[in-house]
Structure to design on (227 residues):
């Protein structure tokens, strides 16, 4: 059974605070790790797809790192803004034919 | 066009009704997916279509019947659903099946309520 764990479950921060989330996944048979941002009433949006151990990717104020040996990825948001309020999901593909398993997500709320 | 379009956005149906959900993409993606999401839970995979053929059925009850008429269109036919089937149904696509170094493109979902 594959477990993708995310922590914390929810986070409330003040505008301007920096924050980070953790996604844990099985370290064996690693292929890729996806991060998605899901704003209320919108579509989940792909942020990063990470494939290499030690990978670090950045998109504006958001960045992510990957450690495949120990089975975790961190997502950082620098200087959170109210528009960053969303649920952040990580997902791990398993098996053939593209089976993507999601974590429960982390709900971020940024207060102005 | 870089979107996945799902219709309808909301659907209320009785337990004896037959309805269909529709999903469309024009990005040339060759893998398409149906996910089900209940409140406060992660999206759960239901079906995968690879090159218009059903490749994964996650033991979904037969009252859900997927169909992929062409490479741009994915339907989910619903019949004799139960109230516990009420959920958000998400469609997604990806460029190539089995190449998970590409992100998925999701639709905004159909919110289904079974009464």
């Amino acid at each position: 059974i594959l477990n993708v764990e995310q922590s914390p479950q929810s986070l409330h921060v003040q505008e301007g605070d920096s924050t980070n989330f953790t996604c844990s996944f099985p370290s064996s048979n690693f292929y890729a790790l996806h991060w998605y941002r899901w704003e209320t009433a919108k579509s989940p949006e792909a942020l990063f797809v990470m494939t290499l151990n030690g990978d670090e990717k950045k998109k504006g104020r958001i960045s992510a790192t990957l450690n495949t040996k120990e089975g975790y990825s961190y997502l950082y948001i620098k200087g959170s803004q109210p528009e960053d309020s969303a649920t952040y999901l990580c997902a791990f593909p398993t098996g053939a034919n593209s089976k993507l398993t999601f974590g429960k997500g982390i709900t971020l709320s940024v207060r102005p | 066009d870089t979107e996945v379009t799902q219709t309808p956005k909301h659907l209320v149906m009785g337990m004896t009704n037959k309805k269909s959900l529709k999903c469309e993409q024009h990005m040339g993606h060759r893998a398409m997916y149906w996910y089900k999401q209940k409140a406060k839970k992660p999206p759960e995979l239901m079906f995968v279509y690879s090159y218009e053929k059903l490749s994964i059925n996650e033991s979904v009850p037969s009252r859900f019947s997927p169909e992929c008429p062409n490479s741009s269109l994915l339907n989910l036919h619903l019949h004799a659903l139960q109230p516990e089937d009420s959920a958000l149904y998400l469609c997604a696509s990806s460029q190539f099946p089995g190449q998970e170094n590409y992100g998925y493109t999701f639709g905004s979902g159909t919110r289904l309520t079974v009464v």
Notes: Chain B has a mean pLDDT of 93. Chain B has no helices and eleven strands.
